[in-house]
Amino acid sequence: MLTLCLVLLVVMIVIGAPIAYVIGLPVTLIILFTTQVPLKIVPQMMTAAVNSFPLMAIPFFLLAGNLMNISGVSHRIFAFAETLVGHIPGGLGHVSVVASMIFAGMTGSAVAEAGGLGVVELEAMKKRGYDVDFSAGIVVSAATIGPIIPPSVIFVLYGVLAEVSIGALFLAGFIPGILMGLALMVRVYLISRRKHYPVTPRASAAEVWRAFKGSFFALLMPVIIIGGMLGGVFTPTEAAVVAALYAIALGMCVYRELTFADVWRTLRVTGLQTASVMIITATAVVLGWVLTRSQFSQALTDYVLSVTRSPQLILLLLNVFLLISGCFIEVIAALIIYTPVFAPLLKAVGIDPVHFGVVMTLNLMIGLLTPPFGMGLFVVQKIAQISFEEMVRAALPFIMPLIIVLGLITYVPGFTLWLPRMVLGTG
Hints:
The chain has one domain. By secondary structure, it is mainly α. It has helices at about 1-15, 20-35, 40-50, 55-70, 75-85, 90-105, 110-125, 130-145, 155-160, 165-170, 175-195, 205-230, 235-255, 260-295, 295-305, 310-325, 330-350, 355-365, 375-385, 390-395, 400-410, 415-425. The chain is globular and about 70 Å long. Helices cover about 80% and strands about 0% of the residues.
């Protein structure tokens, strides 16, 4: 019965069924036909799953990111990044990467970053004569930095599921996020030297200062969030609330580009996004209970350990599996399904869960760039107004730099664990 339900789960994914049904239907059938447990346990477990203080961070981080997208922050961040790196060969390609790295400290979502900042970046590159395929490719690939550099909705979810420190995960993402940005900038440089894309004249110190002043309050947001958590002023959940309130104050009182009507519309959008995440989380927790009861995770661990006990080889196998899965399964769904399955295996071979959390997240971010279901491809394709096939070809040159970074952080744990160990004494 378990095997049949797993097959049903795969078939439903392939035909594009809503992911909550993909998870919920098979596990309900398993409970109904293979256990004596009453079905009323399903809604009880689902309710208990989302009744979590750490998970409350998700709607507030989503709200903060959505507000930042419509409050004039994107243009100011882009202008500041242009004064810093616009003169390097590759021009606005580098600006897109740096702007995404800065914006990552505010949104925590790749899709939100692509849909918000991406509009500004694509419009600017189109006006300067950049090829649309290059522009779309660098915008969608740079957006993958969003959930790596904190704050990150993905890290919050993983931290809850894997029962590890969310603060440690946030710190662990800093260096990998910077490495991703540098790798993409190298790729931009190599392509731009061949295609002779235009550059912006080097900005004077006065121009850099003016752009910095214009974006100062936006740049202050990640400092407040991370600094407040490290200083013990507030928890990650409370930091998310602070971020949302700060975004409202910034848009309405400082930049004055945010109205009450905008806030109301954003609350509705955020509510829908939160509902989507929470229903998937709730059904996935029931799946985790079924897998635990059936000892599937333990059986998987025993099988893998019978083949190899090498952490390096196991990490390689998990990376390959996650990269392939990312082509077919939505990021949050994959994270929620696989985390409880892999947890016993990681513990058995001594792989740090904080380290693997960053590795897993980067794997799934690369999945945003891969067909047939890469969500990032669909978002940027719509903005750039190109075909899906053109969008796939545009993203391909930027996948390899991200895979190189994935290899580095996989086999050099210091890239992820050095900062949490130094600051928190954990990881």
